[in-house]
Amino acid sequence: MKKYSVVHFLTMSVATGALVASCSSAKTQPTEDNNKHSPNFIILFADDLGYGDLACYGHPTIKTPNLDKMASEGIRLTSFYVAAPSCTPSRASLLTGRLPMRTGLPRVIGPEASIGLPASEITIAEALKEKRYATMCIGKWHLGDQEKFNPVNNGFDEYYGLLYSNDMQPPWVNTDKPLALYHNTEAIEHPVIQQTLTKRYTEWGTKFIRTHADKPFFLYLAYSMPHVPIFASDEFKGHSRAGEYGDVIEEIDWSVGQILATLKELGLDERTMVVFSSDNGPWQEMPDRMFGNDSVQPWDCGNTAGLRGHKHLTFDGGQRVPGIFRWPGTIPAGQVSADMASTLDIFPTLLSLADISIPEDRVIDGVNIIDFLEGKTPSPVHQFYFYRHEMLQAYRRDSWKLRYLPNEKNPEKSTLQLFNMDSDPYEMYNRAKEFPEKVEEMTRTMSDFDEQLRESLQ
User: Which residues belong to any copy of the Sulfatase N-terminal domain (predicted)?
Assistant: First the structure.
């Protein structure tokens, strides 16, 4: 496979630049946990949910009272990014705090893929084992379907869910491997009854919380929806004015409400950080393969609240997603911030809160954002790199975003776009000609970073 880098297309010298500070260690060995009051962590991760799909992010007809309440009880981020505009690389980065290129998973992988999350990578779940956290993964994994890549071999005590996307079966994907529901490494249901997946994921999640209420736990609940084909349970069919897609989102909102109600019932609210986000933007402009029968329609997708682009693109519509953090007594309620942060920051933040050292034998691209979440400081995140597959396509620094549009056949005709993301979050007005020095400086930074990242992988 031919890989194109920023350096391949830009005709400029590469200045010496500092790579993101190297951090952390090899896989940790469990030690006796002397702090029984270490915080619990729950990550609720939707699939293909758009920036504008929740009421608290502006949707006019989808009702999400539980997520709206969660946002009002914590902080709602309006410039929150994922590390890639598609499933596999985004999820690898969430769990490791590292850009997809570093994890070896810059592209989506399918059934029976020969690759998956490398054993050398340290997941949040593996790191938390140093403090003897109970860990569970529920829902979509999509980091390899071979047994060695299974969640139970990546730090999770238990797994219940689908090993990849719910469309990775005929007629949408040409594969002989049946889509199955797994418990740990055993397939327990085929064909999968997708109408009840969200409900069953929720039941397993609340059961896990109840079982481990007396010790620190980490729950990673990755919904299979609203990735197409979309399904809602009978209780939510016809529930939303926004049609079937709205039904799916409102059932996810119900699920979030059940998780939060369980925490409150058990007196765990003030001991538990809960995060809600999505793996990438909505899957608009789906390929023809998705319309082989009447079960998927072009409108079975979310919206970006006007952000340009969608899933698979490095415009903000592909990588800016809802980011809601709730932790009563620690994260002040009622906060809304346009400061940047990303899913890369979750790994170092959770480890720091658990009093676990950040690995020092590898680059961790995220940073600890707890002081920002607590309202003590502005966000420490001032720049973000937008990779699609192996190519660095865009770079944001504070309010400015530079997006590089390569012409692979004729590099000298490649163009640059410069947007002010504070005044023009919809990336409508290219101001590159107005600020040539800023374009040159940001292009050089972008090139330096990409060059050094590639050198570190050799």
Answer: 39-356
